[in-house]
Amino acid sequence: MPNKASPVLFSGMQPTGDLHIGNYLGALKTWTAIQYDYRPIYCVVDYHAITVYQEPKALQEKIEEMAALYIAAGIDPEHSTIFVQSTIPQHVELAWVFSCVTPVGWLSRMTQFKTKTEQQESVGTGLFVYPALMAADILLYQAGVVPVGDDQTQHLELTRDIAGRFNSLYGETFVVPKTELPSVGARIMGLDDPTQKMSKSAPGSNHSISLLDSPSRIKKLIGRAVTDTKPAVDFNDLGEGVANLITIYQACSGADNEETREVFSGVQYGVLKKAVTEALVEKLEPLQKKFRDLTADRDVVRGILRHGTERAAPIAEKTMQAVRQKVGLYMHR
Ligand code: AQP
Predict the structure, then answer these.
(1) Nearest 5°: phi and psi at 84?
(2) Pocket test for ligand 1, best of 10, 11, 14, 46 (most atoms within 8 A of CB)
(3) Which site among 113, 262, 265, 270 is 20 to 30 Å from 41 CA-CA?
(4) Which residues make beta-bridge pairs with 313?
(5) pLDDT tens-digit profile of 87-101?
(6) Ligand 1 midpoint to CA 209 (Å)
(7) Cα 187 off chain centre by
């Protein structure tokens, strides 16, 4: 069990839509696996979500559902702190300070900003400074480790740069965190286009599998997943779509490379797809049942979120007091 000397672990997800198997295999599964080695803090990052317009009522619903999914996936609310970002205003306060020490050039290099702006006619400033808010989320709690999927590694590097720049300008203040990637499943690709990362906001009904999809829908979606023109699995020349299916299988079943090769070498894609479907259904069914129980009475999740804010707020305020003092912001005397 961790003690006060164990590093803080921080991570979060945006309540921008239904969580998909990429979110689960890339991040949430790691969160649950390593939570007892750390002092974990898991956040539902609603300030990040509104960098792209969200329907307000749906956003409130999604926030509670996302917290329920964290718990249903195995986050232990007794041990781990779970809270909603906007209930602790120090996140935006520190983000402002960070946006003042972060050169525009650093933000301009972020590939996620470039990709997301391609999809929109008009872009809010928030989307541009998003990485400064992400740095604030993490550094506010002096986190030593941040488990994420591969798409977030660039933002994590920026977080480290921001921590380093603040520390050198104002004196040692922040722990510089490490990125924790899963060994399998760090980047799950879209089922309809395996050259693109699976994403909550991507269009296309055959793109992703939601954590709440029924077994029959999972079967249908895996059945439609893009493979290639070869007749069977060839490990010497795996097409992107087939490689993606194999990754999903391994991340769900825990099978290692040797075992996976043995099972699938030379088998037809139909057989592979059946095995992937079964592995996914087996993984998701218990999660779905727990999610249904948790959302039947929302008071349980609401209580956990309230308690999470009570646990996280004093840590955030302690860091902010140090920051205000170091930066020279005015304090009543
Ligand atoms: N395709 C993926 N494979 C592996 N991991 C992934 N993650 C996201 N997509 C994949 C990881 O899931 C966490 C969720 O992060 P987020 O909610 O902040 O949003 P994101 O990274 O931008 O994920 P999405 O699904 O693509 O959402 P939208 O469409 O809203 O932007 C992170 O740890 C991420 O690495």
Answers:
(1) -100, 130
(2) 14
(3) 113
(4) none
(5) 999 999 999 999 999
(6) 13
(7) 11
